[in-house]
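JOB MANIFEST
job_type = single_chain_structure
chain_count = 1
residues = 181
[input]
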Amino acid sequence: MIKEYFDEVREELEHGATKKGHPFRYFTLGTVGLDRLARLRTVVLRKITENLVLTFYTDKRSKKVTHIKENNKVSLLFYHPEKLLQLKIEGIASLNLDDASKKRIWDRMEASSKKGYTTVAAPGSEIEGPEAIEYLEDRDYFGMITVHPFKIEYLKLEHPSHLRVRFSKQHDLWVGEFLVP
């Protein structure tokens, strides 16, 4: 019985990566750097592998990259409002340095999407106003971050009672157990 919930997790995450209107397309990434303060931001799910490795894109100069270098344990939060389904994922994040993969994705990306990775100043830098953003012509800071999950919590808000399942990765296998919601 627990397998059907894991199958639903996989299916919903795959839809998030492949279907633009799916609620799991955008998710919350939580990091904790050396300052020991939780930092949350919304990112876009770009890819998920058969092994549930998730990928999203970033500017390599962003604070999230710094935090991941300082502490590579991250949390992800997905919510599907129509299904009242929440997924919390804990995993190990890393900056994907594979130039061939980066080039393949970059070459297929629309020019308007590339702009976000070609600003002269790093994300979070102070500027006078939106019109002050300058872009590079010959350089980019495009990066990909992959997250290898080791724990997934499934929470379905249902009546008369909610349903909660925790999946933990043990020796390349996912083991599930029901929890009190």
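[summary]
The chain is about 20% helix and 40% strand.
The radius of gyration is 18 Å.
exit_status = 0
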